[in-house]
Amino acid sequence: MPSVDLHEIYHALLNHFRHRNWWPGDTPLEVIVGAILTQNTAWKNVEKAIRRLKEAGVLSIKGLRTIPREQLAELIRPSGYYNQKALKIKAFLAFLQREYRGNLTRMFREDTRVLREKLLQVKGIGPETADSILLYAGGHLTFVVDLYTYRVATRHGWVPEDIDYESLREFFQDRIRPDVELYNDFHAQLVAVGNQYCRKTPCCEECPLKPFLPPENIGWP
DNA sequence: GACCAGGCACATC
DNA sequence: GATGTGCATGGT
């Protein structure tokens, strides 16, 4: 892997995009539900679904546990894959009840690596969702890798295109000061800049959207 | 009307 | 182990 100064890049991004209000959520539970609902889905659609859950008064541990799956599916319909996601939310709540007596505070007291492994056992929770839950809902130190993280890192030649999730996560964690706030905002910055890149993988020839990192192509070979 | 979006599980080879 | 497919709505 090439040597990259990610702190320098972070500050360049921060200077350009300013602090991102990333992953707004009133409660840890709302963040967790959002993490499931946003799987391969635009955040705008997730916002609608969350609003409907709130309006129905079921965005609570008890509410989500007691609502019938069919009704839950109907409420989260705007976020897409609603039948699958209703099952996933139900699976998480069953897990929370079984392992932590339905208590999120108790769950997040768990050791990061132990909890990560346990979350990955829950049907519907893959590595990105697990890391989002850990970092954004629980304040645990784990870097979240997503489509944008991948797009930025590959487009700049920092990592090979066939890199897997874990290796990409390690790439960032090995190069960033271990700080939850930094992990949080760094990811947000990568999404901000990644949004301006060409969607194709690899980027098409003569692409008008050449990779850049403000202010002046930092990191571009 | 394509194409895309803050993935994941499962089938098949 | 790699590759393919279903899941589904809403914005551009």
Write up what this structure looks like.
The chain is mostly helical and 221 residues long. The protein has a domain at 28-137: Orthogonal Bundle (Endonuclease III, domain 1), CATH 1.10.340. Helices cover 57% and strands 0% of the residues. It contains twelve helices and no strands. The protein has helices at 6-17, 28-37, 43-55, 61-66, 69-75, 82-100, 104-108, 112-121, 127-137, 147-155, 165-173, 180-194. Helix 2 runs antiparallel to helix 9. The two termini are 13 Å apart.
Just name the CATH architecture of the domain at 28-137. Orthogonal Bundle
- Identify the overall geometry: globular
How far apart are the first and last residues' alpha carbons, in Å?
13 Å
Radius of gyration: 18 Å
Which range does the strand content fall in?
Answer: under 5%
Overall SS class: mainly alpha
Could you name the CATH homologous superfamily of the domain at 28-137?
Hypothetical protein, domain 2
Instruction: Note poorly predicted spans.
Output: none
CATH class descriptor name of the domain at 28-137: Mainly Alpha
Characterize the biggest β-sheet. none
- Distinct helical segment count: 12
Number of strands: 0
- Average pLDDT number: 92
> What is the H/E order?
HHHHHHHHHHHH
The CATH topology of the domain at 28-137: Endonuclease III, domain 1
Helical coverage, percent range: 55-70%
